[in-house]
Design goal:
- There is one protein chain.
- By secondary structure, the protein is an alpha/beta fold.
- It has a single domain (11-374), classed as Aldolase class I (TIM Barrel, Alpha-Beta Barrel).
- 30% of the residues lie in helices and 15% in strands.
- The protein has twelve helices and 13 strands.
- It has a 13-stranded mixed sheet.
- Strand 6, helix 7 and strand 7 form a beta-alpha-beta unit.
- Helix 2 (78-90) packs across helix 10, helix 3 runs parallel beside helix 4 and helix 4 packs parallel to helix 6 (175-188).
- The protein is globular.
- Bound molecules: S-adenosylmethionine and iron/sulfur cluster (2 copies).
- S-adenosylmethionine binds at residues 50, 56-57, 99-100, 102, 132-134, 156, 196, 198, 225, 227-228, 230, 234, 371-372, 375-376.
C-alpha cells in the first residue's frame, strides 16, 4: 500500500469501543453532554464519493484512481439510516442534513429523503431536513427532492469566475451548471438557497467582492467559510485562512455598508451581517472564532460511525449494533448507547486550537477524519 493512504485508512478503522447498556433508558429529548450542550443536529453522510476534487477537500494527489472508497455493502442502507435518525430525533434532534461526499450521487437519494421526511420531532413538528451539495446534479434533481419532502438546500460555490471555479473543483466543471442548479432549487421551492464559499488565500479570495455583489441581487444567502484544518490530506496552513473579520473589512471597503445582525438562535454557526440597503450575508469563522460552546451537532459517517466532533479522531460503530452477531439490539438499547456517548462528549477542538494559536503554539497534528467521509 502506498504511503499516501495511511492516515485515512488508519483513521476509518479507528473505533471507539461501545459500552453496552446494563439498564435501558427511555429518551426524553433532554440529553446533555459534559458541557451542558444538547443534541439538536444530525449530519448524515450518505456517500464518501464525489465527482469533484476540490483542492481543499479531496485533493487529486490523495483521492486518485487507486484510492479505496468504501464498498457498497459497508454503506448504511436507507432503512438503517432511518432507524438511527428516529433514535436521534427521540433524543431531541430537530434538524437533519444530508451530506457526503456528494449526496446527490447516492442512488435513489429521493427515497431516503421521503423516508426521513416522515419522521416527526419530539414536539410533533416536521424535521428541518436539508442537504448540502456541489449542485452538479441539482438542476435535474431539485424538483424530485422537493416533492420527496426536502426543506431546503445549501450549495457550495467557491467562485463565479469560470477559470477559478474549474481550478478549485479540479475536474473542469463549469460554473454555469452550478448556477443552473441553484436556479432550479429556488424554482422548486427549496429556497432561500444558502451558498457556501470556502475562502482560501491566494486561490479565490479575489472573488469575495464579486460573489457578494452577485448574490446581493438574488434571494440566495451567501456565507463565507474560513478554510479549515479538517482531515489529514489538504495540507492546511494558517496563513491560507482569510479571517472573517478581514472579509467584512474587504466588503465594507468596497462600499457594502454591512451591519451586524443578531443570531436567529443559540448555536447558529454563521454570524449574520446585513447590507445597508437590505439583504444579508453570513460568515462562518470556524478557525478564528470557535463556536464549540454551543455545538449541538453529531455526525453519522457513511458506514454508520457516530462522530461527536468534526475534528474527532475516532467514531463509535453504530452499524455493529444494527448488523452481524449483535444485530438483536432493540431501538431502546441503541438509544441508550447513543445517550451514553453524548453524555460523555467533551469535544471542543476549535476552542483549543484558538487557544493554541493565540499562544503562538502549533496544534498537535492529529489523524483527523476526512470531511468527505463524515460530511461537512
Ligand atoms: N459535496 C457537498 C458539497 O460540497 O456541498 C457536500 C459535502 S462537502 C464536504 C460539505 C461542505 O464542506 C462544503 O460546503 C465544502 O465547501 C466544505 N468543506 C470541505 N472542506 C473544507 C475545508 N477544508 N474547510 C472549510 N470547508 C470545507
Ligand atoms: Fe466533493 Fe464537496 Fe468535497 Fe468538493 S467539498 S470535493 S464537492 S465533497
Ligand atoms: Fe463542534 Fe467540534 Fe466544531 Fe467545536 S470543533 S464546533 S465541538 S464540531
Amino acid at each position: 500500500m502506498s504511503e499516501k493512504f495511511i492516515p485515512l485508512v488508519d483513521h476509518r478503522q479507528r473505533e471507539r469501543s461501545l459500552a453496552l447498556p446494563g439498564m435501558l433508558e427511555t429518551p426524553d429529548g433532554k440529553l446533555l453532554d459534559t458541557r451542558a450542550r444538547p443534541l439538536r443536529d444530525l449530519r448524515i453522510s450518505v456517500t464518501d464519493r464525489c465527482n469533484f476534487r476540490c483542492v481543499y477537500c479531496m485533493p487529486k494527489s490523495v483521492f486518485d484512481k487507486d484510492y479505496h472508497f468504501l464498498p457498497h455493502n459497508s454503506l448504511l442502507s436507507f432503512e438503517e439510516i432511518t432507524r438511527i435518525a428516529n433514535i436521534f430525533v427521540a433524543h431531541g434532534v430537530t434538524k437533519i442534513r444530508l451530506t457526503g461526499g456528494e449526496p446527490l450521487l447516492r442512488k435513489n437519494i429521493e427515497k431516503l429523503v421521503g423516508m426521513l421526511s416522515r419522521i416527526k420531532t419530539a414536539d410533533g413538528d416536521d424535521l428541518d431536513l436539508t442537504l448540502t451539495t456541489n449542485a452538479s446534479l441539482l438542476a435535474r434533481k431539485a424538483q424530485s427532492l422537493k416533492d420527496a419532502g426536502l426543506t431546503r438546500v445549501t450549495v457550495s460555490l467557491d467562485s463565479l469566475d469560470d477559470a477559478t471555479f474549474r481550478k478549485m473543483n479540479d475536474v473542469d466543471f463549469p460554473v454555469d451548471d452550478v448556477l443552473d442548479g441553484i436556479a432550479a432549487a429556488q424554482q422548486a421551492g427549496l429556497g432561500p438557497v444558502k451558498i457556501n464559499m470556502v475562502v482560501k488565500a491566494g486561490l479565490n479570495d479575489q472573488e469575495i467582492v464579486p460573489m457578494a455583489r452577485y448574490f446581493k441581487e438574488t434571494p440566495h444567502v451567501l456565507r463565507f467559510i474560513e478554510y479549515m484544518d479538517v482531515g489529514a490530506s489538504n495540507g492546511w496552513k494558517m496563513d491560507e485562512v482569510i479571517p472573517s473579520a478581514d472579509i467584512i473589512r474587504r466588503l465594507n471597503a468596497a462600499g457594502m455598508g454591512l451591519q451586524r445582525v443578531e443570531a436567529n438562535y443559540t448555536g447558529e454557526t454563521a454570524e449574520r451581517w446585513r447590507y445597508a440597503d437590505g439583504g444579508e450575508i453570513g460568515v462562518i469563522s470556524s478557525v478564528t472564532q470557535s463556536f464549540c460552546q454551543d455545538c449541538t451537532r453529531a455526525r453519522l459517517s457513511t458506514e454508520g460511525k457516530l462522530y461527536t466532533c468534526l475534528f474527532a479522531t475516532g467514531g463509535h460503530d453504530l452499524r455493529s449494533l444494527l448488523r452481524g452477531p449483535d444485530a438483536s439490539y432493540s431501538d431502546q438499547a441503541i438509544s441508550t448507547v447513543v445517550a451514553q456517548i453524548w453524555r460523555a462528549r467533551s469535544d471542543r477542538y476549535s476552542e483549543l486550537r484558538s487557544a493554541h494559536t493565540a499562544a503562538g503554539e502549533q496544534t498537535e497534528r492529529l489523524k483527523k477524519v476526512e470531511m468527505s467521509y463524515i460530511g461537512g
